[in-house]
Structure formats: structure tokens, C-alpha cells
Amino acid sequence: xxxxxxxxxxxxxxxxxxxxxxxxxxxxxxxxxxxxxxxxxxxxxxxxxxxxxxxxxxxxxxxxxxxxxxxxxxxxxxxxxxxxxxxxxxxxxxxxxxxxxxxxxxxxxxxxxxxxxxxxxxxxxxxxxxxxxxxxxxxxxxxxxxxxxxxxxxxxxxxxxxxxxxxxxxxxxxxxxxxxxxxxxxxxxxxxxxxxxxxxxxxxxxxxxxxxxxxxxxxxxxxxxxxxxxx
Length: 231
Hints:
This protein is α/β, with parallel strands linked by helices. It has one domain (2-136, 172-228): Spore Coat Polysaccharide Biosynthesis Protein SpsA, Chain A, CATH 3.90.550.10. The protein is built from six helices and ten strands, in the order E-E-E-H-E-H-H-E-H-E-E-E-E-H-E-H. The protein has helices at residues 28-39, 52-60, 80-93, 113-125, 183-187, 213-228, and strands at 2-7, 22-23, 26-27, 44-48, 100-104, 130-136, 145-147, 153-155, 172-182, 197-201. The chain has a six-stranded mixed beta sheet with strand order 4-1-5-9-6-10, sandwiched between helices. The chain has a two-stranded antiparallel sheet with strand order 2-3. A two-stranded antiparallel sheet has the order 7-8. The longest helix is centred in the last third of the chain and has 16 residues, at 213-228.
């Protein structure tokens, strides 16, 4: 059995109702649920939430709500690994047996089934603990600058001052879309970035973190542009 787990906590402060706020005609979480369904990989698609309204919307969109997330892992400091570990423990305590669980964020409207499937192929054919989506920084981080106490600029590492951008090593960051992991890795709450992990690289134009209203508006512009270009 293969499980998709979508964490969707209630009480978003910066974007009220973020997980079920309308995004191009659908509740935001529906984009993630539909991506899971369209992979045809998952035996169960579960939303872990502490919120009755989110639970009702998620059910209408095709997900299961077999439990309500405990308050102990439903605050601003709860980690993704703790939430997934709880879900796996809950399922295993009821006799469910499975090796792989994919955590998919509820605010990932750019997520594509083909990328989730690519992650599944990687974790199924390697000994990786996790496989997750990453994307490249849009500017060489080696040329980063900082401000001192008087607001003067200095380079973080001046040795890169005369280096051409094309000669610098590319660096990547979490794309915030999906995280395949072995059940045992999740249960041990092994840190995703510090374990034996492999990437699925997502183009930068299909990645937008959505933490505040500025992010939301940017995501809307990107989504509209992608639709117009059929990308």
C-alpha cells in the first residue's frame, strides 16, 4: 500500500483560510488532492487537519479524513515529520502495512502528477530515505551581500567578486511540493535535508512558496501565465 498525506492545519494568520481559499476556481487544497488522484499511485489519500471546515472540503475533493489531528501537533511549531509520523503510527496501529508515504503540501497549486511519479520511481529503485522536490536559486548565492550596522554593503564572500555567474556552482532549495519517504524514516522523524535524500528538480517558473498575501498574488500571476502558455 502507498499513502499520500496532506497536512492542512487550520488557523492561518497571514492568509486566513489559506488551505481552502479559492485559487482559480477551486479550494487551494483541491489542486494537491487532484494531483494525488491523477498519479494513480496511492491506495489512500489522507488529509491531516485539526479544522472541521478543511476536513469537509477535503472530503468533497476526494480525500479521506480518518482522524482529527491532535492539538499537540497542530500549532505553529509542529514539524512536517511529526505530523507525518503521527499519521503513519495511527494507520499502523490499525493494522495498515506500507513502506512508502508521500507528504504533499496543501498549498502547492503548481504540483504535477508526473513529478510525484518521478519521485516514486526514484525512491522505489534506490536506497534513499527521502525523495523531494527542489528548484534552483534564481541568482548565484555565492554573490550574496549583507548590510552592516551603518547599512553599508559587503559581500558575504568577497572571493567570488570577480567570478562569472556561469562559472559558479548551482545551488538549490526546497520547492515545497512533495516529500516521498520510507515509513521508517518518517517514524524516526529523520530530518529530510540531513538524511540520504534524492531530488526531483522542478523548473523555477513552477515553484512559488505561499506564506503571505504577496506570495499568493505572485502565485496567481504565475499560474495565469502558465495557463495562457499551456505549460
